[in-house]
Specification:
Blueprint lengths: L13 E5 L2 E6 L2 E7 L8 E4 L7 H12 L7 E3 L5 H4 L2 H7 L5 E3 L24 H4 L15 E3 L12 E5 L8 E5 L4 E5 L10 H6 L15 H13 L4 E4 L5 E2 H11 L3 H4 L13 E3 L2 E4 L7 H27 L5 H11 L11 H4 L48
Parallel strand pairs: 4-5, 5-6, 6-7, 10-11
Antiparallel strand pairs: 1-2, 2-3, 3-4, 8-9, 9-10, 11-12, 13-14
Length: about 400
Amino acid sequence: MLSNDATRASTPAFTAVVPGLSVLRDVFVNLYYAFQQDQPQGPWVLIDAGLPGSADKIQKHAHELFGTSTPPVAILLTHGHFDHVGALDGLLATWPDVPVYAHTLELPYLTGKSSFPPPDPTVGRGMIAYLSFAYPKHPYNFGSRVQALPADGSVPGLPGWRWVHTPGHSFGHVSFFREHDKVLVAGDAFTTVFAESGTATYTQKQEVHGPPAYFTPDWDAARASMELLTRMEPEVAATGHGIPMHGATLRQQLAGFVPRFDELARPKTGRYVHHPATADGGGVTSVPPPVVKPWLKGLALAGLALGAVALATAGNGKKKGKKRKGIRQKAVSSQASARTADGSYRAWYRDNPAPSGASGPDWQDRRPGAYTDHESSPAPHADSRYSDMNARRIETQYP
């Protein structure tokens, strides 16, 4: 039953949200089973695919709802981040004939063409954000199994639903909206938990928040998308992170949050706070340079100072022991300064070189964000290193 005062302790990980929509909380991210309200055992779709290693769990709950011989008619993706497509490989192996749908601007990250912009741990706010430097940003390659959502805004397998382009958290992020009763599956366009915080993520205390900051590369587009969804006045919001909220409380929190978006959602510091990453139909075209916080710089300088002290101390120790180890030290020194046949000094890095690095309709005539389906010139702040189309497959392309 819907509540606006729920927590992890009071809410099962797998439960019904409203008729025709059930949720599975996969550790810290949500995925949804959607079907026609009057056909609970009929055709169904899966919205998002959770974390890596979750395929068996997702299928188990699908069997509980629809039986063992009823695969989904489609898998719909709000976006392609690792926590929303992690189990997709395993699911597609079990369901070989099920198509996958995503926005056309999300396809480069699902067909091996482009890495996502790197996550940004410098946004701070909690453990989940600080650890984001380790989160996968590489492209997935589902090949021809993934295709663009219908351009007319309809949703495969879900009559009465429409998809809405809500970029910001990712370039091709979409939300799904059941119009007759205003049920919204918002993905990560906004959340109902403080997603950057490890404590809040564990307790799952309900509260409207912006998109997860550590993975959001365009804050102006994210604000416009949240404004759009707020104007739609959802009765129920089922988000990618957090327990679904509903009713007047949901709408009041959305209405109060959006005017203060830059204060409440946009980080005070961070890589994308003032300069977004940019993309086109082929993938990422530019990302701004990394941001290093002052305390990180101080920590690095302190480390260098300690290293210098250690080296100096080690050097003094060697001098004191030189007389006692004269013969052996000379032999070692002779080996260290040995020349190669061509007369050059031998060094470990010469013998061990580093390996070479291998759309849709506008809702109410407005699409937030300025992403295009064609090649576009980089923004004025763009770093030209990130425009190399041939290097997009390399995860470490964007430091």
